[in-house]
Amino acid sequence: MIIMGSNKRLVVLSLSVIFLAVFMALFTTSWKPNKKAETTILDVHVIVLQKDGGADVYLTGKDVSLVSVFETTLDYDAKNIEIKSATPGGFFVQPLVVASDIKGGRFSFAFNPGLNIPRSDGISTNLPVLSIKFSAKSNLDKTPINLNPAATRVYLFDKGVFSPDISLLTKF
Among 169, 170, 168, 166, which Cα is nearest to 44's? Predict the structure, then answer.
């Protein structure tokens, strides 16, 4: 009799495990998360304003005050263009220069987390995030400098990283 009681328990336990496994398989294949809840639309755009001898890179959009890091790589013809300087443009009031490589055209500037200032006081959204000075070695028929879209990213406080749209405005 003891053996029969153990077998009944074993059968009930086995059936319970099988039922639970089938239920979980059905649940996971039929349940789909709400895609709208997962998708966050971020509103930050990059505008490059070029003029003779220079370019300023601005960030615009409703989420621009949340930007904590800006990084980009410049695309330009090194045979015809010489980059004289590329510096933070005042967007981050006291920026942390994460990377600055004028010859390679790679730049990364960040909100300086070492400062005890609120974000709203550490960001001046009406100023450029990057200012570039260059000289042309010959007459140019096309835009001398572009930002590489694949290498241009903004990091937003508490929202992550993304590649924004880039608009080029030229004033020669």
Answer: 166
- What is the distance between the alpha carbons of residues 7 and 140, in angstroms, rounded to a whole number? 88
> Under a CB-based contact definition with an 8 Å cutoff, are residues 157 and 119 in contact?
yes
Give, in degrees to the nearest 5, the angle at Cα 25 between 20 and 31: 115
pLDDT tens digits, residue range 56-81? Answer: 999 999 999 999 999 999 988 888 88
What are residue 97's phi and psi, to 5 degrees?
A: -85, 105
The number of residues in the chain equals: 172
- Sign of the C-alpha dihedral computed for residues 87, 92, 95 and 99 taken in this order: negative
Report whether 121 contacts 110 (CB < 8 A). no
DSSP string, 140-154: -SS-SEEE-GGG-EE
Q: Look up the pTM and report it.
A: 0.71
